[in-house]
Design a protein that fits this description.
This protein has three helices and no strands. It has one domain. It is an all-alpha fold and about 70 residues long.
Length: about 70
């Protein structure tokens, strides 16, 4: 029972972290589609933008996994 409670707490913490990170990316760049369009057109200015897009995409997928 303790293990299940710990796993649920860990999942809730991870989901909260992911939600906060996604909000920060949206505040920084606007909708993810904007950054994806820049990437597709070759307009990404810095490698940070490219890395942020990869992380953002991963976090969206991970959030879906956690939510179900």
């Amino acid at each position: 029972m303790r293990m299940q409670a710990a796993a649920e707490t860990e999942s809730a913490d991870e989901l909260r972290f992911i939600t906060d990170k996604l909000s920060a990316y949206e505040e920084k760049y606007g909708p993810i589609e904007h950054l994806m369009n820049k990437s597709d057109s070759g307009e990404l200015v810095t490698s940070d933008e490219d890395i942020d897009l990869d992380v953002w995409t991963y976090l969206l997928k991970r959030k879906q996994e956690l939510i179900g």
